[in-house]
Amino acid sequence: MDEVTISGLTKNFGDLVAVDHMDLNIPEGTIFGLLGPNGAGKSTTTRLLSTLLRPTEGTAMVGGFDIIEEPVHVREITGVLPEESNHTIYGTLTAYENLQYFARLYDVPEEEIDERIEELLTFMALWDRKDDKAGELSTGNRQRLALCRAILHRPRVLLLDEPTSALDPIAAKRVRELILSLSQKFKQTFFINSHNLPEVQRVCDQIAIIDEGKVLLHGSTQELRSKLLAKQRFRIRIVGDIENASSIAKSMNFVEEVNNEIDSIIVTIEDPTENNSSLMQSLLSQGIKIVEFAEEEATLEDLYLEVVKGGDA
Ligand SMILES: Nc1ncnc2c1ncn2[C@@H]1O[C@H](COP(=O)(O)OP(=O)(O)OP(=O)(O)O)[C@@H](O)[C@H]1O
Ligand SMILES: [Mg+2]
């Protein structure tokens, strides 16, 4: 069953079409990633789904409730981390008081409140900040607190707008672990906006790429990745002169593209089954030591550039 169904969803700001007849279905229990460049319409989509904005046209169902007809029910079953995480926490209350307040607002059983708060704050490495005023926390710590607040009441659907944008790498990793463990334990549905492709690749089951408010692509992360495997790229890691290896590769007529990295060249090869051994021989015969010759897996980054920029990136 689909937990989020977006149908012809459109939001205009004057002449600007921020979300343009968007259709998307997200099955229950999915960790879904919405990717797109700045201004693509990700946050507007989240604001529409969380009933902060009203669509110009179309609608969406979240957990079986219509965002236009039943906004109160939608709010009851969702947890939202907005782009500006400040907007959901009170600066004059402490971190602990913020969570206590929201736990009561969302009817978390009284006897579970303290335990849940301690568990979450400890996991997010915020426990020693529990008595600090939220308004005096660093940006990253405020984002962590806002995330705790979004998940505290164990909502069925989580709408997270760039949950790791302000976080250091260790905190970002914790958030990914948290999302994966919540998803396993409670089978919640996650709708995550992000620019961070490797991150999305690590946590999301499904992704959609949008630009100018339109969905350009939607599928399982695996499907989308395999679309690009046909690219025939290989990483050749060598010991020695990268420039020399690179110019040898460029001189072969079946080599389409060569990119240099610190210890490797990445080559795109036409008909690799036929030609890989010739390239290898050429390199070896000119004294290049090859440490690794391996197929280079396509990344969502490739896909993103290809889709958003129409393949000319
Ligand atoms: N309240 C508003 N009034 C007018 N225009 C708006 C408003 N909110 C968003 N927009 C415009 O709508 C478009 C989509 O914005 P949105 O914030 O949804 O993009 P985004 O994909 O979240 O971008 P980013 O990656 O920068 O967060 C942009 O052109 C933006 O300027
Ligand atoms: Mg945004």
Structure report:
The protein is an alpha/beta fold. It folds into two domains: 2-226, Rossmann fold (3-Layer(aba) Sandwich), CATH 3.40.50.300; 229-297, Alpha-Beta Plaits (2-Layer Sandwich). It is 37% helix and 29% strand. It has eleven helices and 14 strands. The strands form three sheets. Strands 6-7-8-3-9-10 form a six-stranded mixed beta sheet, sandwiched between helices. Strands 2-1-4-5 form a four-stranded antiparallel beta sheet, covered by helices on one side. Strands 12-13-11-14 form a four-stranded antiparallel beta sheet, covered by helices on one side. The longest helix is centred in the middle third of the chain and has 18 residues, at 169-186. The chain is globular, with a radius of gyration of 24 Å. The structure holds adenosine-5'-triphosphate (ATP) and magnesium ion.
Characteristics of this structure?
single chain, 313 residues, alpha/beta, Rossmann fold, Alpha-Beta Plaits, 2 domains, four-stranded antiparallel β-sheet, 11 helices, globular, binds adenosine-5'-triphosphate, binds magnesium ion
